[in-house]
Amino acid sequence: MIRTYLPAPTGAAETVADALRMLAAIGIVVAGVGWGPAAGFSLAFVTVGMFLPRLLGVRPGFDIAFGIVVLASVWSSVLDIYISTRWWDLPMHFLTNGLCAALVYIGLVRLGLLADAATLLRPMASTAVMTFALGLSLGVLWEIFEWFGHTYIDEEIFVGYVDSIGDLAWGGIGALLAGLSRPLMEGQSATARPRATSSPLG
């Protein structure tokens, strides 16, 4: 059953993407032991999210980029790079929010919750607008999460009006560009990929 939804890698790029997922899984233990349960939970959350590109059957290059960016983002938090290097927050929001918005968009289309832009009159514009909207929504949810963390978990989590607006703006720009680049990201649908006929895992 596992091979039905997560087939074995078929090329070097998919192997690299799977290696990143393995690295993220190892990071759960490293972060948990070295930086505490909260860091371990953050790595666990990211590790689970890194399987979504594979399940959705996006291009391996997008899968690799997503894995690298989210790992860089979460380790930047664990290592307090966002605090020591304030400007690092903006490029991370630009990249992470853009890739996440594109992934969410592709997932919603695959689930039939959004119309495939290819069926619309202006597919590129439609994709860009929807991905931009999803990116802003994800950005708002993240800022709420940061506020919650600052208020109830750790006051060291930096929040502020200027910071939030900057994060939303850069994240929105990243999402817009990701929407315009969708044809470069989306590969064969996971449901259309050939399924393994037999596997020791079922």
Automatic annotation (TrEMBL):
The chain crosses the membrane at residues 20-52, 64-83, 95-113, 125-145, 157-180. Keywords: Membrane, Transmembrane, Transmembrane helix. This is DUF2238 domain-containing protein. It comes from Cryobacterium psychrotolerans. InterPro entries: YjdF-like. It comes from the Bacteria. The keyword Membrane applies.
